[in-house]
Amino acid sequence: MDVQTLTYIFVGASFALYIGIAIWSRASSTSEFYIAGRHVHPIANGMATAADWMSAASFISMAGLIAFLGRDGSVYLMGWTGGYVLLALLLAPYLRKFGKFTVPDFIGDRYYSRTARLVAVVCLIFVSFTYVAGQMRGVGIVFSRFLEVDINSGVFIGMTIVFFYAVLGGMKGITYTQVAQYCVLIFAYLVPAIFISLLMTGNPVPQLGFGAEVGDSGQSVLQKLDTVLVDLGFTEYTRGNKATVDVFFICAALMFGTAGLPHVIVRFFTVPSVRDARKSAAWALLFIAVLYTTAPAVAAFARLNLVDTVHNTRYSEIPSWFSNWEDTGLIAWQDKNNDGVVQYGAGAAFAGKPEFTDKRGEHGQRIISNVSSDVVNEIYIDRDIMVLANPEIARLPAWVIALVAAGGLAAALSTAAGLLLVISTAISHDLMKRTFMPEITDKQELLSARLAAAVAIGVAGFFGIHPPGFVAQVVAFAFGLAAASFFPAIIMGIFSKRMNREGAVTGMIVGLVFTFSYIVYFKFVNPAANSPENWWFGISPEGIGTLGMLLNLAVAVMVSRFTAPPPPVTQTMVSMIRVPKHTE
Amino acid sequence: MQDSNEKHNAYWRANIRLVLLLLAVWFAVSFGAGILLVDWLDQFELFGFKLGFWFAQQGSIYTFVALIAVYVWRMSILDRRFGVEED
């Protein structure tokens, strides 16, 4: 069978499974819709958290990013896993003990303030929609490349599936679909990684394989990669290019941001007890680590394979994956020296993204209208394709390619569903029930949660079909803003009894405005100035959330010193969440 | 009431000590070995990896998993010692 038929079978079967689970696990009350009735087993919650967390960015983009960044890519690996240590030790158990439905719930109750709740809702919606847009792009890429439907129908199919289990099942439906999606995505990630590791080094464990010897070359994968890249004019793969201070701040922003992301935090509200919240954080990170320790191996294999198959190859003899991706516009080749041979090297072949004309060149390549740069490199490769193209580059069997497509969709859909749920909960619970329409019944609240989820899916679909050109730029937002707003407010809410409404609200606003302005300035207002000489203390917009967080903390502590302490009832609440069970 | 407050405060102090200790390790493997000391550690080798690079892309993640596991284990002991474990 060919790749496309197999992909239809794999993707179709996985979708049927998700819909089946949705019908089996319909939600009948707000408690089931918001937090799955708190009946989720810690291991199941660990898997669901892992699927919730590992998005199209982790599955599709991350290994590609690392493949091109080398050691500088480590920030994503450490940042997106290290955040779980903070989450497990500093947030999850206490928020579970608090025992409400949402993150704005905690902020609103702990700081006895409607303003605090509303600031939290606004941040939550902004952060979550930013993230959803990226997921929908992932769905679009997979559909357009592997199923050869156009991106719009792809997004539409994805929306229908998510609609089914998010609107029907709420958190309960999402949790059990995410368990299934974790299994699909991790299997789809590991199979090609193990295959490639075996082919290249004879070692079936990718985590060891990228340090093992390639064939009989006498060099390990990483050593060979260093040599090959230096020959092509790059710096060594295992050396960094970024300044240490910037790497430090980016890594911290990713960690604190991860720990502050509402759709991840809320997963810990679904388990039966505080002890289960701790346990499920451990399981979640274990399940995540399986993918995150494989990703750097995949990255190294993919980069080496890419150079081997593409560099100095005649275009007429190039493997079919190259021209397939060229057709989707994510690879481009500009034959600068007119020799019909593809040359790869350091530096961009031309500025910006390729602009394709309708014409084909003499070798059959798509002609682009960009002005060439003066480097030897002739190819443009979108980093997002590395994981999806990897099995083809390594000439793995067709079913592995189909499996990877199903895995990519599982990763994107599971995260999208989790995000849509927190958005709809924030609207129906925090905005309506808790702020503007306290008199509505549980039934009405459930209905409005479903309606809000449906509307949110529509908006997410709109972003998928008309992707804002700035998706990549706004990802810095999601983590930076979560780090600068939620993380400090929650931490101080638990660890400081003296922190009051005035301090927390001022801190959140200062952290937000600072981080937001810095990112907007360098990404949108004056992108030409976005270089290390102009950054404050050498911190890039990606890392500025860390500074925003420190500012938030400093301001909050100062302001709270000069204003009245929180009322006794709030102090009692803090004492209560600090211990798993109160004894008199 | 006074007794139980005393007990809860002692539990909270023990909790903070444990968390600080674990976070010190968290900082040391990621920001320490993976970022600040990475070039210096690269002179050593482990299973074919430069050591600093290995910490940045593998070792830190394994340590994170271990840290949470230790936390779960130690906290359940603390819960029992102070009699605040859930039923």
What features would you highlight for this structure?
heterodimer, A: 584 residues, mainly alpha, two-stranded antiparallel ribbon, 22 helices, B: 87 residues, two-stranded antiparallel sheet, 80% helix
Topology as H/E string of chain B? HHEEH
Uncertain runs of chain A are none
**Tally of separate helices of chain B:** 3
The number of distinct helices of chain A, counting runs of at least 4 residues, comes to: 22
Instruction: Tell the overall outline of chain A.
Output: globular
The share of residues in extended strands of chain B comes to: under 5%
Largest sheet of chain A: 2 strands, antiparallel
Shape of chain B: elongated
Mean pLDDT of chain A: 87
Question: What is the structural class of chain A?
Answer: mainly alpha
Topology, number of strands of chain B: 2
Can you tell me the residue ranges of chain B where pLDDT is under 50 for at least 5 consecutive residues? Answer: none
